[in-house]
Design goal:
This protein is mainly alpha-helical and 183 residues long. It has nine helices and no strands. The chain is elongated and about 75 Å long.
């Protein structure tokens, strides 16, 4: 009898998980279970994709069967189906035009910038681009002035300064509200 796999695999559902995330989870299960054999990886993949995704693979590959293709071919096939590569220029436009929304925290804004940058192919320039977008898109005059006043400001420091100022602004508002309530 085969040993149970270490890790949790659930049936892939394109409504609740991206294909990229599914492949990452599978990769971690393979590492945890020391699975390196391509045939075994393919068999596990085909066992956990679920009936809808398996049918999709059969239809796309017809007359071939999914079991006749390699693990890499199958994951690439589903990647191109579920997550086709978006236009890099469109993704860069979205990234570069994103400004912080009125009720959005600095942390939420930076997380969304990181998500938007995912398909921008910035490579080694990512931190510089995040820095520029943070400074230019912060939409808070006090924070923006403070960031612009910093010489040789790098992204990490810009993020920390913006976060500290946001927290301080919120704390001042809270103190002022309590002072008014106490009068």
């Amino acid at each position: 009898m085969a040993n149970a796999l270490v890790g949790t695999l659930t049936v892939f559902n394109s409504q609740t998980q991206t294909w990229e995330e599914c492949v990452e989870v599978l990769g971690n299960v393979f590492v945890a279970n020391e699975i390196e054999d391509g045939e075994k990886k393919r068999a596990i993949l085909l066992s956990y994709v679920g009936s809808r995704t398996y049918s999709l693979m059969r239809n796309v590959l017809s007359p071939d069967k999914p079991g006749e293709r390699s693990y890499g071919e199958l994951t690439d096939l589903l990647q191109s189906h579920f997550n086709p590569k978006p236009s890099e220029i469109v993704q860069r436009f979205k990234f570069n035009s994103r400004k912080r929304a009125a009720k959005e925290t600095v942390t939420e804004y930076v997380a969304l910038l990181r998500e938007l940058a995912h398909h921008c192919s910035y490579g080694d320039k990512l931190k510089e681009m995040l820095h520029d977008r943070l400074v230019c898109g912060i939409a808070d005059d006090r924070i923006q002035r403070r960031l612009l006043a910093e010489p040789e400001l790098m992204f990490e420091k810009a993020f920390k300064v913006a976060l500290a100022m946001e927290t301080a602004n919120r704390d001042v508002r809270d103190l002022q509200l309590q002072a008014l309530d106490g009068s």
